[in-house]
Amino acid sequence: MAANSSDRPVLEELDRAECLRLVAGGAIGRVAFDDGEGPTVIPVNYAADGDTVIFRTSSSGRLNRSLLTTVIGGEVRMAFQVDRFDEADHVGWSVLLRGGAHPLSEEEKEKAARVDPWPGGDREAWFRLRALEVSGRRLRRP
C-alpha cells in the first residue's frame, strides 16, 4: 500500500541565516576541491566563524598541497558541505557553502575560531573558506 502523500516528508529551501545556523552547530564537514587530478572530497573537522569555516589538515596531506599551490594572497575555489539525516524517519538537512579558501597566516591563526582535529598527528595547516554562496535544503515532516 502506498503511503499517503500528506504523510511524506516535504523538501524546503533554507535561507542563508538558517544555513549558517546549522553549520555553526557541527564539527565534521566535507571539503570539495580539484586536486589537479580531478574533483575530490575530504572530511574535515571545522569551526564556523560567521560566514566562514576554519579547518585544519596535515601539512603533508593532499588538501594542503593543493591549496598551497595558489598565488600568495589568492584563494582556491572550493565547496564545503555539512548534513544531518535521520534515515529511519527520512528527515534531515544539507547545507553547501561555496567560495574561496586560503591558508591562514600566523596572525590569523591567533584570532581564528579553535578547531580541534579528531585524528592525531600533524594538523598544522589551517585554512579559512569564505562563503560567497550559501544554499541548503531540509526534508521535514508536514
From TrEMBL:
Pfam families: Pyridox_ox_2. InterPro entries: Pyridox_Oxase-rel (IPR024747), Split_barrel_FMN-bd (IPR012349). SUPFAM superfamilies: FMN-binding split barrel. This is Pyridoxamine 5'-phosphate oxidase family protein.
